Amino acid sequence: MIDLYYAPTPNGWKAAIMLEETGLEYRPILMRLSEGDQFTPEFMKISPNAKMPAIVDHAPAEEWGDGPVSIFESGAILLYLADKTRRFAPPENDRRGRKELMEWLFWQVGNQGPMGGQLSHFRNYAPQDERDYGFKRYLGEYDRNLGVLEARLETRDYILGDYSIADMLAFPWAFIAKPLGASLDDFPRVADWRARIKERPAVQRAIDLHKSEQNGGRHRVDNNTILFNQSAASFKPKSGN
């Protein structure tokens, strides 16, 4: 029913977690990012930013009209799936709940996620002699976002009170704190929240999806120009032949 264009990264896990949590039937399509699968004409019609995850729903709700619906960007995907299933998000008529949901979705995709991504780059993939400033800069920003989350969790178990797509978006970038060179020692509520989510069977299944294909530092700036040092020319779709 749903095609999931996926690679085993924190952003890929977000969509996989939601699909596993809802029990929707889906077909994972592994994206070999180091080989440039994201730049094929077929994929860029679905995701013009040439990033995964992306989904194609071949059986959307009736109000979407005829034909499949494609969605790119993890926050948009999770919101679409929450509305499709009426699960893991406040209903549209709950204006205050919906407002808080949007705030935390935008916080994750505009702050926590990008800062974690940059930290990962300078920790794992940048040239050795150029890592120090970037690593220190983004470790500070990563920790700042952990502090925001720590404060939010002071009076609740999950970001909105109940487990929701806000947690599914934020969890993957907290899950990999140690490989990023960060620590949750100063953020005990975040550590407890992370542990609660990690124990969920759906989350475990999502994280294990194509686990053997994780990059693990194999592809770096110095050995893969497809993944790194992209320019506007990178977004000229490759030939489909």
Describe, in short, the structure shown.
The chain is an alpha+beta fold. Helices cover 47% and strands 7% of the residues.
Give a structural overview.
The radius of gyration is 18 Å and the shape is globular. The longest helix is centred in the middle third of the chain and has 31 residues, at 95-125. With 241 residues, the protein is α+β, with helices and mostly antiparallel strands. Strands 2-1-3-4 form a four-stranded mixed beta sheet, with helices on one face. The chain is 47% helix and 7% strand. It has helices at 10-22, 41-46, 74-85, 95-125, 132-152, 165-175, 188-198, 201-208, and strands at 2-6, 26-30, 54-57, 69-72. It has two domains: 2-89 and 216-224, Glutaredoxin; 95-204, Up-down Bundle (Glutathione S-transferase Yfyf (Class Pi), Chain A, domain 2). β1, α1 and β2 form a beta-alpha-beta unit. Residues 94-218 form the GST C-terminal domain. Belongs to the GST superfamily. InterPro entries: Glutathione-S-Trfase_C-like, Glutathione-S-Trfase_C_sf, Glutathione_S-Trfase, Glutathione_S-Trfase_N, GST_C, Thioredoxin-like_sf. This is Glutathione S-transferase.
Note the main attributes of this structure.
8 helices, Glutaredoxin, 241 residues, Glutathione S-transferase Yfyf (Class Pi), Chain A, domain 2, 47% helix, 2 domains, 4 strands
Write the layout of secondary structure elements.
Layout: E1 2-6, H1 10-22, E2 26-30, H2 41-46, E3 54-57, E4 69-72, H3 74-85, H4 95-125, H5 132-152, H6 165-175, H7 188-198, H8 201-208
Parallel strand pairs: 1-2
Antiparallel strand pairs: 1-3, 3-4
Helix pairs in contact: 1-3, 1-6, 1-8, 4-5, 4-6, 6-7
